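Submission sheet (multi-component)
Chains listed below:
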Amino acid sequence: MNTQQLTQEVTQLHADLCAALADPNRILLLYALAEKPRTVNELTAEIGILQPAASRHLKVLREHGLARATRLGQHVEYSLVDPRLIDALDTLRAVLRDSLARRANLMNEME
Amino acid sequence: MNTQQLTQEVTQLHADLCAALADPNRILLLYALAEKPRTVNELTAEIGILQPAASRHLKVLREHGLARATRLGQHVEYSLVDPRLIDALDTLRAVLRDSLARRANLMNEME
DNA sequence: TCGAGATATAAGTTTATGCGAATAACTTTA
DNA sequence: TAAAGTTATTCGCATAAACTTATATCTCGA
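Outcome: structure written.
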C-alpha cells in the first residue's frame, strides 16, 4: 500500500468522522454528553426526539468511537469518549459565528 | 422566536458546516488551501480529481463561507477564509487517531 | 418465569449527495 | 471577433442516510 493510498484511506476516515457530526441531533447529543453521562431516556427527553431516533444516532456515535455505552441495570448510560471532540465543535462554531457576522456586515454595507 | 428555536437554528447551521467537511475531496482541498492560495487547475492536479468535481466541491466550500474565490485573469484563485478550520480538522484527526489506536489495542488484547 | 420498563433493530419511504459526461460561460490573446 | 484556455453548471444515475411506525431484545422485580 503506497503513501497516496494511505492518505486517501485516512482522509476518508476523517470525512466519515465529520459525517458523524453532520446532524443537529447528534451535535445536541454530544454537547449533552459533554456535561455528564446520561441514559438514553434522559437524552431522549432532553433533546426532544423519539426514542428510536436517539438510539440510532447514539449507535452512529458509538460506531465512530465518539460515545461509549455502559449498561446500568435496565438502563444504558452513554458517555463522551474524547472531550477534544467538543473543542473541535466549539472551534467550528466560532468559525460559523464569524462567517455569519461577515455576511451580516456585507448586507449592511449594501444598503 | 424563542430560545429553543434559536438553539435549533444554530445547531442546524453547525451541522451544515460539519456536512461541508464530510467529504474526502473537500478535506484535501481545505488542507491544500491552508498551505497557500491556488487556482482551480492547480487544486485539480494536486488532489487528482476531475475539474468539474473540483469546481463543485469548491462551490460547496464557498457557499459555507469556508473558501473565497478571486478572479486573476482567466484563472480563479481560491483561498482559505479562516485558518481555525484547519485547527478543528487537526483536532478531529487527533481524535480519530486515538480512536483507531484504542480499537487496535482491543484487537491485540483479544488474542 | 412472567410482566413492565428501557433500549435496539427492522421495514418502507423519502430526501440528499456524489460522480462522470457533456456543455456552457467567462477571460485573454491573436 | 474568433479561438483557446479556464472555470462553472446541468443531467441522469447510483448510493446512502434520515424519518416514522412497528416490533424485537434485554433487564429487573413480583
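Remark: The helical segments of chain B are 3-21, 24-35, 40-47, 51-63, 84-110.
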